[in-house]
Amino acid sequence: MSRQSIWATKVAALIKGGNSAAAIAQIKVAPTVKDLQELRKLLATGNLLKLHPNVDAASTDMIAALSAPRLHRSP
Questions:
Q1: What is the pTM for the complete model shown?
Q2: Segment 33-58, tens digit of pLDDT
Q3: Is the dihedral of CA 53, 14, 65, 74 positive or negative?
Q4: 3-state class of 29 per DSSP?
Q5: What pLDDT was estimated at residue 68?
Q6: How far apart are CA 71 and CA 36, in angstroms?
């Protein structure tokens, strides 16, 4: 049984505290897509995505980046 990550709640607290720049920095180094989706769910329930469009855009971009297959160099 896996533990639920507390990353999303910590980043949501940064946004609620008004430090969206730090939250965006954390979003850019997010551990997994699941964590980002959980963060978006938390922010949507508090209507924070509408108040912080830059956080909305950053989280959407990182979900797309982490979901895409990784490019690799040929040998």
A1: 0.83
A2: 999 999 999 999 989 999 999 999 99
A3: positive
A4: coil
A5: 80
A6: 21
CB 16 within 8 A of CB 48: yes
What are the two backbone dihedrals, phi and then psi, of residue 50, each rounded to the nearest 5 degrees?
Answer: -70, -35
In this structure, what token pair is assigned to residue 10? 């910590």
Helix (H), strand (E) at residue 37:
helix 33-45
> Helices H, strands E: what count in the chain?
5, 0
End-to-end CA, the chain: 39
Q: Which of 32, 1, 3, 2 is nearest to 11 (CA)?
A: 32
40 and 50 Cβ atoms separated by less than 8 Å: no
Handedness of CA 63, 13, 7, 43 (dihedral sign): negative
